[in-house]
Amino acid sequence: MENNKKTIFLVDDDLVILSMGSEVLSEKYNVYTVNSGARLLQILDRHIPDLILLDIEMPIVNGYDTIRRLKERNGTKDIPVIFLTAKSDSDNELKGLSLGAIDYISKPFIIPLLLKRIELHMLVESQKKELESQKSELISFNNNLKGLVEKKTNAIVELQNAVLNTFAELVEYRDRITGGHIGRAQEYMHILIKEMHKFEKYAGLIDTWDMPLILLSAQLHDIGKIAIRDNILLKPGKLTSEEYDVIKTHVAYGVHVIDKIMSDTTEKSFLEQARIMVSTHHEKWNGSGYPNGMKGQDIPLQGRIMALVDVYDALISDRPYKGAYPHEKAVEIITGEKGAHFDPELVDLFMEVNWEFKAIAMTHNRAPNSIMFPERPYMDMAVL
What we know:
Layout: E1 7-11, H1 15-25, E2 30-34, H2 37-43, E3 51-55, H3 63-72, E4 81-85, H4 90-98, E5 103-106, H5 111-175, H6 181-198, H7 203-206, H8 211-218, H9 230-233, H10 241-263, H11 269-280, H12 301-316, H13 327-336, H14 344-363, H15 378-381
Parallel strand pairs: 1-2, 1-3, 3-4, 4-5
Helix pairs in contact: 2-3, 6-8, 6-12, 6-14, 8-11, 10-11, 11-12, 12-13, 13-14
């Protein structure tokens, strides 16, 4: 078969049609004549043409039966078929087209019209194959692009997480908190939020949250501490009222840092969550917190959750100004602040899972400070 020509199988039991058709078509196409439908099906096991011209009125296996068998086989179902027939009624034409033929040409056919219609269908089939090839290439390109985008996205997320972790570790280093306070706080939050799901507390709100995003954002809740001087942040004794006011500025400074980052980036979703936690995790349910004296459910839920987990970890951890309380004492203090410092419903949920908090606290190795400072009263300590 010549490579530069399309191949046509002409199938008819009339030798005159086969001879004439071969002569007419061979100038432009590789033409192979076949004298029956059964013979065609045998040949198609070895060779696949670009087009089949198929007579309908043939003995034993007629054109309709032949095309049915073609369409049942994976290797031949997509070969375009044009019916040739002496019947010109619309019912036969409709039947042929419904069986999968692409055209219907009546015999005796007009040679120029036959050539033009074959040329047209060859062009259409060529374009279809080109489109399929382009589609396949596009799918492959898209898949490769998707893989590259995912790889790049994962790299950006990893970099983002690394930067956030570095910020968080910087804050912990400044505060001389050992043992990963921020990591534990994230785990406490996760436990508490899962419990909220279980008991359908604030369900309409938390169902809209992106959990990984919330936990990622939580790392920045104390970022403002990097602006507090060491002689106040690390003071072992009781704070003066002036020092207390300085400590409280870490919230405003943290908001300033987040706002500065947000102004320089288009990706703000996790920063928006971080801003909420930075600005509200020292507010109290009864309105006595800072910086805005927000009260009850006016305090964003993220801030109320962070307030509880942050204080719990502060209570059970060694800090420059205090030794670690036992878990049971921390639980007692938190329950005592139900409805005062903390959202009552969150305290109730905390009581259901406080043993999980204890397990996390015990799992993380927290190296105790070598020097034990006098314990600062809880209400004073809670500012940190």
